[in-house]
Structure to design on (96 residues):
């Protein structure tokens, strides 16, 4: 049974990310989640220009490849809400 609350990602919260990469292990979208979360936080504070690095991920998983399975959050010791971050990045990337 899940007992820990899912934590919305902010730049402040992401500072406690241990870069353990447990979130990326088994991601069906093959997304480099820690790297993408760094982009997400830069976007939150810096706006749409911070989304430019996403094009460098074109041979790996992109936010749009997220199928919202939630495995990342299940494996994350911080219980970060990766799904919400990927969804926002996918929407904003498509709107650029
Ligand atoms: S599993 Fe959580 S703490 Fe570990 S790298 Fe991913 S986001 Fe950071
Ligand atoms: S919710 Fe998205 S980012 Fe997380 S493991 Fe599933 S496909 Fe990957």
């Amino acid at each position: 049974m899940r007992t820990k609350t899912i934590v919305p990602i902010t730049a402040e919260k992401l500072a406690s990310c241990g870069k353990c990469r447990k979130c990326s292990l088994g991601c069906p979208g093959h997304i480099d989640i820690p790297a993408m979360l760094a982009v997400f936080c830069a976007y939150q504070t810096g706006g749409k220009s911070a989304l430019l690095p996403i094009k460098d991920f074109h041979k790996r998983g992109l936010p749009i490849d997220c199928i919202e399975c939630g495995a990342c959050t299940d494996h994350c010791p911080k219980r970060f809400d990766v799904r919400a971050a990927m969804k926002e990045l996918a929407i904003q990337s498509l709107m650029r």
Q: What stands out?
A: The chain has one domain: 11-95.
